[in-house]
Amino acid sequence: MASTELSRLQARFGIAGQLQFGHGPGGLAVVEVENAHASAQVALQGAQVLSWAPRGAAPVLWLAPPASLAPGRPIRGGVPICWPWFGAHASGADYPSHGFARSERWEPVETRALEDGTTWVHLRLPRGETSARWWPHPCALELGITIGAALELELITRNTGALPFTLEEALHSYFAVSDVGRVAVQGLAGGTYLDKLDGIRRRQPLGPLTLIGETDRVYFGTNAECLLEDPGLRRRIRISKRGGRTTVVWNPWAEKAARMPDLGADGYLRMLCVESANVADDRVTLAPGTEHRLWVRYRVEPLD
Ligand code: BG6
């Protein structure tokens, strides 16, 4: 993104001493926030939060090495937005994996320094030719980001057309972990899950999830909070959600990671995706004139 464009955004949306526009890892155009509670970077591409760390705490999100990041390429790490479909498209073989919202440039609508010291950033996906090609339904897509001791994201879809449509979505968070084989995820009970690595078989979750290999699971009916417990980092990440019924847990493990261009040498060991979503059984149908909100909050707590 040209420096003149960044300066224009800075003049309109910058907040002195708290929020500025610049170039981040891999040359991506980013919003950088530093407030009394936390620091964060959000790429305009995909409205993707790249990093977030409460003040004095270790980074909570995992991000691929800068060498594998470049404008126009899906960004591996942080919190990609999958929308309006999840994974491969049901019928279009050449449609991008996880939809197009993560590859498009979003635009700021408003930024605010809130009284409690947090920072609010509001972005929207402009309706361009690309999106019209993949998704003919008139609609509006926005993301509200609140950066503080907690990180909150709210993805809002509005149906502005005359016909209903059905969408899938995910806030595909990559959490930084000490060692993916030594963490546990709680809060996945409630419904069944689909194991994408086992013929998409439907299974019943049993207790907390610990990983011993490649994992790609879609848990339905999971409205409860999920806890990602990491004894190595002595922390627990508490993931709360509203408007989302699915939780996806993904890690490619060593063999698949070695075939991926953007995970880095030991990337798979240091990350775990616990995604708040509405996919497959839980996909959302929006009537004309209505909206749907998927809200998440991530918090870090000491693990005793
Ligand atoms: C997960 C999916 O959410 O994302 C996996 O469940 C997929 O099946 C993974 O492999 C990564 O997807 P991508 O398109 O970012 O490589």
Account of the protein in words:
This protein has three helices and 23 strands. The protein has 304 residues and is mainly beta. The strands form four sheets. The chain has a nine-stranded antiparallel beta sheet, with no helix packed on it. Strands 5, 11, 12, 14, 15, 17, 20 and 21 form an eight-stranded antiparallel beta sheet that branches. Strand 2 and strand 3 form a beta hairpin. The longest helix is centred in the N-terminal third of the chain and has 11 residues. The mean pLDDT is 95. 6-O-phosphono-beta-D-glucopyranose binds next to strand 20 and strand 21.
Question: Could you report the average pLDDT, rounded to the nearest whole number?
Answer: 95
Helix content: under 10%
Specify the oligomeric state. Answer: single chain
Which compounds are bound in this model?
Answer: 6-O-phosphono-beta-D-glucopyranose
Identify low-pLDDT runs.
none
Quote the beta fraction: 35-45%
As laid out across the biggest beta sheet, the strand order is 6-7-8-9-23-19-18-13-16
Distance between the termini: 45 Å
At a glance:
The chain is mainly β and 304 residues long.
Label this structure with key terms:
304 residues; 23 strands; binds 6-O-phosphono-beta-D-glucopyranose; globular; 3 helices; mainly beta; 41% strand
Summarize the SSE layout with pairings.
Blueprint: H1 3-13, E1 19-23, E2 29-34, E3 38-43, E4 48-54, E5 81-82, E6 107-113, E7 119-124, H2 129-134, E8 139-147, E9 151-159, E10 165-167, E11 169-171, E12 174-176, E13 184-186, E14 193-195, E15 201-203, E16 209-210, E17 215-219, E18 226-230, E19 235-242, E20 246-251, H3 253-259, E21 271-278, E22 284-286, E23 291-302
Antiparallel strand pairs: 1-2, 2-3, 3-4, 5-11, 6-7, 7-8, 8-9, 9-23, 10-22, 11-21, 12-21, 13-16, 13-18, 14-15, 14-17, 17-20, 18-19, 19-23, 20-21
The structure holds 6-O-phosphono-beta-D-glucopyranose (BG6).
